[in-house]
């Protein structure tokens, strides 16, 4: 079904379906299709809300709650940077094609700490941080041009740090080593208004507090393990839980998750390990396009893995070859249990196909009914394409 703003019409008389039956029906309806249902009547709107906010037994979170979407943007790297957008909704287990109004892209699209999209050139800087990236903010470019800097949204502040520069630029503008964001994992604690950066290869981390404009660290984020961690990522889950994702071995033997103490930045407990069959599925060639990518990029390596983390969901994927998308759900009760599953890739979506003129950007967003309603009224169209 294609959902557009034209679908948002209020019937004069709603069907006589009420209570638990109505909520049960809504439990099986994709989130994007629930928006028109909220316009039928007040009772339907309440039923939609209740179906999404109901609670599970004991301390278990509501299984039908809204979960972070995985957003995938494929962009032509040449002007005018035409872009296609797709999303995976884990609550509904569906892939959605997003038809957006034409956007003026000033440069190649980039992402940072799952939620932030931005475009940066020597003369301009644009960023978007709302869930569906409906609004773009255009501000002046940094005074000193940096290639591939760290870009983050911390509270109401935009942080630009690091990057590489020409020899005539001011060397004191950067206060970190290895500052190119290509090799850094970035995480933002929205409640404490702090940014964390971690070297993906060596696991050395720093924190930055924009309120006092000061860096702290270094901290060595290395679990006490006999395994060789060849690559790592960081991100925040619910309740300010800092999660460390470690890739084991140069041949990706395993992928493990640890929880990090948010104050001392010491890795203090392992909370999950990806099942071996999913590790192999992550690397497998599943289509002719993936085989073509394998020829271009070679066998998957730890540096080709990408991670997006939000709420209690971790998406893990190999961007250069294609492969599967693996989703890990961390228990919300603080116990640390993890459940793993493979997300079926939508046909027609290629994660970084073997084309020098195409780039792929992935990220997470907590998309709610209000966000979808605003998008539909702003001429966006959403079409449920396939079941994931």
TrEMBL record:
Q: Name one GO cellular component term.
A: cytosol
Would you say which domain of life the source belongs to? Answer: Eukaryota
Extent of the signal sequence: none
Which BP terms from GO are recorded? proteasome-mediated ubiquitin-dependent protein catabolic process
- Which stretches make up the F-box domain? 20-49
- What parts of the sequence cross the membrane? none
Tell me which Gene3D superfamilies the record gives: Kelch-type beta propeller
PANTHER family with a match to the protein in the record: F-BOX DOMAIN-CONTAINING PROTEIN, F-BOX/KELCH-REPEAT PROTEIN SKIP4
The name of this protein is: F-box domain-containing protein
Could you read off the lineage of the organism from its UniProt record? Eukaryota, Viridiplantae, Streptophyta, Embryophyta, Tracheophyta
């Amino acid at each position: 079904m294609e959902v557009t703003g034209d679908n948002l019409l209020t019937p004069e008389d709603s069907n006589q379906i009420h209570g638990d039956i109505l909520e049960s029906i809504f439990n099986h309806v994709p989130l994007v299709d629930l928006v028109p249902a909220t316009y039928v009547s007040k009772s339907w709107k309440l039923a939609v809300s209740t179906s999404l906010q109901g609670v599970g037994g004991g301390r278990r979170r509501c299984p039908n709650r809204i979960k972070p979407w995985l957003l995938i943007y494929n962009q032509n790297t040449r002007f005018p940077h035409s872009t296609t957008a797709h999303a995976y909704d884990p609550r509904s287990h569906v892939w959605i094609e997003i038809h957006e109004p034409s956007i003026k892209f000033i440069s190649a699209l980039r992402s940072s700490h799952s939620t932030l999209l931005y475009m940066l050139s020597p003369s301009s800087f644009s960023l978007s941080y709302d869930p569906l990236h409906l609004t773009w903010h255009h501000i002046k470019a940094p005074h000193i041009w940096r290639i591939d800097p760290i870009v983050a949204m911390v509270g109401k502040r935009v942080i630009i740090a690091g990057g590489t520069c020409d020899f005539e630029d001011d060397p004191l503008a950067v206060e970190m080593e290895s500052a190119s964001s290509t090799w850094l994992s970035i995480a933002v604690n929205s409640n404490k208004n702090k940014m964390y950066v971690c070297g993906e290869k060596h696991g050395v981390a720093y924190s930055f507090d924009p309120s006092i404009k000061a860096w702290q660290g270094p901290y060595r984020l290395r679990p006490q393990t006999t395994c060789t961690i060849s690559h790592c990522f960081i991100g925040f889950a619910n309740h300010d839980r800092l999660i460390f994702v470690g890739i084991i071995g140069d041949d990706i033997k395993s992928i493990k998750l640890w929880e990090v103490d948010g104050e001392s930045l010491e890795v203090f407990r392992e909370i999950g390990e990806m099942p071996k069959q999913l590790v192999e599925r992550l690397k497998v060639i599943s289509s002719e396009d993936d085989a073509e990518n394998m020829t271009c990029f070679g066998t998957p390596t730890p540096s080709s893995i990408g991670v997006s983390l939000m709420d209690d969901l971790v998406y893990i994927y190999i961007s250069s070859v294609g492969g599967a998308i693996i989703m890990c759900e961390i228990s919300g009760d603080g116990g640390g249990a993890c459940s793993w599953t493979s997300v079926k890739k939508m046909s027609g979506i290629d994660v970084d196909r073997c084309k020098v003129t195409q780039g792929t950007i992935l990220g997470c967003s907590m998309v709610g009914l209000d966000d979808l309603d605003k998008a539909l009224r702003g001429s966006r169209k959403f079409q449920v394409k396939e079941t994931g």
